[in-house]
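To the team - magnesium ion complex, inputs and output below.
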Amino acid sequence: SIPLGYFGGIGAASRLGVLFKGGNYLDAITQVNTVVFDKTGTLTKGTFDVQSCQAQPGVTEEKLIQLAASAERNSTHPIAKAIISYAKQRDIELIATTDVTEIAGHGLQATMDGTRVLVGNTRLLTKFGIEYPDELSSIVDTIVACAIGTKYAGYLLLSDTLKEDAVNAVKELKALNINNIQILSGDKQAIVTNFAEKLGITQAYGDLLPDGKVKHIEALRSNPANRIAFVGDGINDAPVLALSHVGIAMGGLGSDAAIETADVVIQTDQPSRVATAIHAGRQTRRIVW
Ligand code: ADP
Ligand code: MG
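Output:
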């Protein structure tokens, strides 16, 4: 049976928007010494804005946006939302897509008007052997590139911003004496490093495919001294949430898969609630023991 103190702890935490799925996690979270954050949607707002677009000669901006947005209509990624609403703003009509494949950590492949179209990062273009200008690699922002058939057609430039609460999230963890704080992301290393520096996080790992995130957590787990909490919100985060000692999902904009797999769900959009959760665990332990 669960000692009464755990009910108190779970109740107190839930009033702060932190849902523990069981008393055992209140206990497990007191052991945590390593907090690993997903970047997009967890530390950043995860609601991108399209800043500009750059179409290749012979491709109109409208066509580029139309293809990108039509493909993205098949995705729930935060990038997809941004591109679809940008097309709406510019009154660009979307077209029908068939044979759509979403490739995690890459983007989408779809057929439109009888032509194969690719919409995603440069890794996607490389995967399909499509050549693109060198400049693309040096852009320190999220870009969504597009290929029509086997030809590179241009890109959209997107930006995401840190959540106001992200700086607090890191400060509060450090105040709880948790100094092993990391960011994992499928986004480009330069972007991840840039956000990490603003937060006072020195361990920033970018360019990771979903499988790379799993390998990273496995490597951390191989040292039994590491007690890991992973904090994420995306569909792709479910395997890593499951693998961590305590999986924490940001429930605000989070995916159902992440919320379902997690041990703890943060119902507000505040990553600093991770520190709240750890604090709640420590308080409860003091009462129960
Ligand atoms: P993270 O949540 O860590 O940023 P993801 O695995 O969700 O990582 O995505 C990694 C990268 O893959 C994105 O930064 C983007 O470049 C590309 N990507 C993933 N899904 C899409 C999509 N629907 N459209 C365009 N690009 C995408
Ligand atoms: Mg994500």
